[in-house]
Specification:
11% strand, elongated, alpha/beta, 48% helix, six-stranded parallel beta sheet, 39 helices, Rossmann fold, single chain
Length: 1008
Amino acid sequence: MPVQETELRVRWDKPVRDPLQVLVSGGNESGYYHNTRLPLLHNLIGQRAACASTPALLSSAVEIYPHQIHAALTVLSDPVQRYLLADEVGLGKTIQAGYVIRQTLIDNPSARITIITPEILRRQWLSELREKFFISDFVDRRVRYSSHETPENWAEYHDSELVVVDEAHELVHNADNNDPRYRELCALVHAAPKLLLLSATPITAGPTAQLALLHLLDPALYSWEDRDAFERRHEMREKLADRVSGLDEKFPPLLPSTIDRIRDVIPEDPLFEELAPQILELLDEYDELADEANTPELALRVEALRAHISETYRLDRRVIRHRRARVLRDDEDSDLVPYVVRGRALPQLLGDGTLHSIATETARTWQRETWDRLLDENLDEQRSAYGLVLGILVSRLGGPSNDFLDSLRWRVRQDTQAAGRAGLTSQERDLLAGPPLLTHESTLLERLEAKLEQDLLKEETDELTAVLLPIVAQSGRTAIFAGAGSLASNLAAELQRRLPDGLVAEHTRHAGSEASHKAVEAWRAPYPKNPRAARGAEKLPRVLVMDDSADDGLNLQTTNTAVHLRLPWSPNRLEQRLGRFDRYPDFGETGQDPATQFVLAEAGEFTGAWQALLKDGYQIFSGSVSTLQDAIARDLAGVWCTALVEGPDGLANSSPHVASQLKDARAAIAKFERVEAVHESATYQTDVAAEIAKFEQPRREIEDAVLNYAGDGCSGIKLPHWTRSVNGCIRHKFNLEAQPLVSPHLYQTLKTKVPAEAAEATFFRADALRSSGTRLFRIGNPLVDMLASVIYTDDRGQATAFWRLDPNHRGELEPYFGFDFVVEANINGAVALVNDVGAEKARLALRRQADRILPPFALKVWVAAGSTKAVTDEQTLVWLEKPYDNNKDHNYNPKLIHELTDIFGGWKYYAAAAKSANVIALEELEQVTKLPAMCDRAQKAARRRLAVAAAQAKSRGAASHLLGDTESYITDVSVADALVEGLTQPTVRLVAATCIVKSGYRRVRHGS
């Protein structure tokens, strides 16, 4: 049927970028839309300011911790996103990587991302990315998962935008440029513009391991052809670390000589020459503190010099390393939840004197006869090699003897099937096969085979099960670490038979990664909280039996009791295992207390002696030794050599010697930490983690802003939603099939990017953390981003005009124009400096840098029509800022718009008055808002810190004998300088325009 032209209104899908043009064209709509659009717009800007334009930090369902935010933001704020995340175990490197992965998909929803992990961790990564970082939000994503074990497939992923390599140290261990797997890895990561390496490589790792990792980051800067130069720099850095360790305010007489010794290593450092005299001027002629009252000042000045050296002479600025000791230190001045870990409990011996093991007897016999034979044949210089053989054999003691037997079969007969059953790694096979076979070993093997009939193995299994049942039958979650070999699978089957009402889960290589992942998920699923649903279930035990595949990367923080049936022969492997449950606690399931621990061991035998040395010498059950792994590995052969020579007693009695060695190693590491500790970048003043926490404190602001705008009231766009409770969490779900008050074509285009599951979320982070898999309505969530796109695209709510009564007003009608602006730092100058990266990619990274210097903000200016000044009267501003109320205010709709234009003498003069008022508003920004003060304050603070960064860049340039990345550091400072300069003329953008006509006379509606 025909429609009158006057009844048609055409809407377009292109963004309406000029609200003023909408206003003067008569496109203004009801003030109700203005009432809901502006609060949400301001909230979106506030979210962006809090997260420094990094929405992944807000929309991921994880707790906010400063060190994790710092790491992710450091990566994402860099136009060149190639970093090594080297935090100590248990500090959340996976969370940091998850932030980067989600933000990469927000920036490019069709990005190709490849994640390389140990096969056994592949499903855990998939689960974490789905349930915490919601990668399914991005319908066009191409996220691929591959494993360390399949390098032959990596060539398929050379089209990746981002490559993430977990446990990267495992791929470079003992590798050089000729290793086939390492070469495949190099080809993959060098083809990708973005790279994240996750590694627990310690600060004291040798030059080869450091070079292997850094070469992955930058093959030109860290070339294998320049290996000799790299090793020389590494040696010089050791010298610098040694000298910086003497920079201690507690010993003033040593400060002058220490400063001179440091100067010898860094001769051209102007900032050092500025800071060092400030320390010395506090000393008297005898190099003592001249005035005891200056003790705090001396400490501050020494710390300033240490911080300068640390920031200036770190090996590479793209290595991010946080220490447990620093992260776990509670900041009393912070409102953030402190980062904590569960800690460790000393283990109790299990099975001592109650278990009979043929393998244990054979191990003692092998040790005695081997040492006797070495002495008889003058082969004692080879004792270290035979000692490591003993260590591997001892690691297969505990429970049934078949894994010990198979290890011996590999040593004596090179039986590959036996090696597979015993779970021998390639390193273990080499170590076992290395030392020449001695004549007594074949005889020992034959005797053991003769004794170990099937009935005896079953008897050993039954004895072990009987010892375990009182522990595993208790309520709660028990994690049984059975070590490498077949023990875990066999024991899981036996426990399933003995505990028909409990859950017995298996995580082993034999079960495979898929089944193992499902088993762990079932084991750590929350216990029912509903009393009726939980009747009886809360007391049922859950047991997870694992082989060595669970020692790396698995999250087992819900463990109540940990049982170690076998202990690895390297403390470094045990450290990885303990890190599975000594990590951030699940407060709802376990609280913060450490898990109870048991070790299956016999006092007086090798298992008991090794457990005692681990407890008293390495002190591994008291705290993390992850930073000591190089020192531990270096001295490990000597430890097992002692065991070979002196037997179990010698092993146990090594505790004081080992403890002393590790004390020295800690001192050496402390030296390196002086020059490698993480410090915030010098240019930024915003603590993003604190800003996020502050923004989320008013619990209802985000919820009110979103629901009012999307709501079905007279001011919403009528996008229906409902609520439901999931695990005690209130979720809001929007109906994407409805047709809101948005251009149908625009809405259909936008909603294709919003999967149904992304339209269901909560507004409160605490609720999302309590209910796994619950999304957050924040920027970065597709539903919220869709609403933001509508706000910036659709003209509805951008312009409003209405009449308002002021009973105190006398005289003519008085029009006012209001202008809402968004202010942000100008980054064009900085982008021009990094065009080699790509303008758009650089712009995203630099915007994050800029927002940390000057967070974006919104402000409003009112100008009376015809005036040359902005409104500053507080009473008038309060009157103007009141929300539109249909009962008191009168909208200038299309039928009444002529009343508004007639006040000005017609459309032409109305438009001219509005545009003139906009010019005045821009000119008056400096007088009536805090813009100049905010920009000036941010600029001055940034310039002070930038001066330090510039001096550090100059110092790095002069320190080529210590460093290799000096040019990129100087570029960073130039970019930061351009960003700071951009604060002089920030970008100001108009986002809404309003016209209010003040009248002293009450309007009478037609018919009243």
